[in-house]
Amino acid sequence: MTDQQLDYQVTVEELSALMKRTAGVHVDPVTLRQQADDGFDTFGLDSLGLLGIVAELEKRYGLGLPEQAERCKTPADFLALVNGALKTGV
Q1: 64-81 burial: b if 16+ Cβ within 10 Å, else e
Q2: Which residues are in the Carrier domain?
Q3: Which residues, including other chains, have CB under 8 Å from residue 13's CB and lie 6 or more apart?
Q4: Domain extent listing, the chain
Q5: If one looks up domain 3-88 in CATH, what number appears?
Q6: How far apart are alpha carbons 37 and 12 in whole angstroms?
């Protein structure tokens, strides 16, 4: 693991942009932050859309994310899992 891996973090703003780019779902970052414990379905993002986000992040960071990332139900859970994986390099 390199020191750079420790600096990787997906923000709410990045997640909002990924939702728009990979799934065509527009959610304002402020709203996403305020409702981070609401289900992805509340924002119109389905499991296929989440899979696209996971694939984009794996490509961006060059590592496989935990399988559970594809099954996260809320943005808060997703960001916690993904950022934990990026921090440890798993």
Answers
A1: ebeeebeebebbbbbbeb
A2: 9-90
A3: 29
A4: 3-88
A5: 1.10.1200.10
A6: 12
Extract the tokens encoding 75.
């943005």
Distance from the first to the final alpha carbon of the chain: 9
Please return the burial class of 18, using the count of CB atoms within 10 Å of its CB with bins 0-12, 13-18 and 19+.
buried
Tokens found for residue 89: 């390099």
- 20-53 tens-digit pLDDT: 999 999 999 999 999 999 999 999 999 999 999 9
Residue 85: how many CA atoms within 13 Å on its side-chain side?
20
Residue owning tokens 């899992």: 81
Question: Which pTM value belongs to this model?
Answer: 0.89
